[in-house]
Amino acid sequence: MWTFFAVVIIIAVVLLKGFDVIAGRGPKQVSDGIGKARNSEGRMPCPMCAEKILPQAKICPFRKSDLKT
């Protein structure tokens, strides 16, 4: 019984690693944080709430108020 579960877990790990290779996520991208790099490109923190916003923004989309410059 335990060998069946061990085989299922091994197969799941191999499949998940295969999906990462297909998606282009190697160990470096995973350790660097894929979502972090994708969300922070070209964005700056709002001076009031620290959420990431575009540098051209005049109004913070999170606070719905003007940015103080």
Short structural description:
Helices cover 51% and strands 12% of the residues. The protein has helices spanning 2-23, 27-32, 34-40, and strands at 44-45, 52-53, 59-60, 65-66.
Your description of this structure?
The chain contains three helices and four strands, in the order αααββββ. It is mainly alpha-helical and 69 residues long. It has helices spanning 2-23, 27-32, 34-40; strands at residues 44-45, 52-53, 59-60, 65-66.
User: Can you tell me the overall shape?
Assistant: elongated
Oligomer: single chain
Report the radius of gyration as a whole number of Å.
21 Å
Question: What topology, given as strand order, has the largest sheet?
Answer: 1-2
Order of helices and strands: HHHEEEE
Give the helix proportion (percent range).
40-55%
User: Uncertain regions: pLDDT < 50 for 5+ in a row?
Assistant: none
Structural class: mainly alpha
The overall strand count is: 4
Average pLDDT confidence is 75
**What percent of residues are in strands?**
5-15%
* Individual helix count: 3
Describe the largest sheet: 2 strands, antiparallel
Q: End-to-end span in angstroms?
A: 65 Å
Count of discrete domains: 1
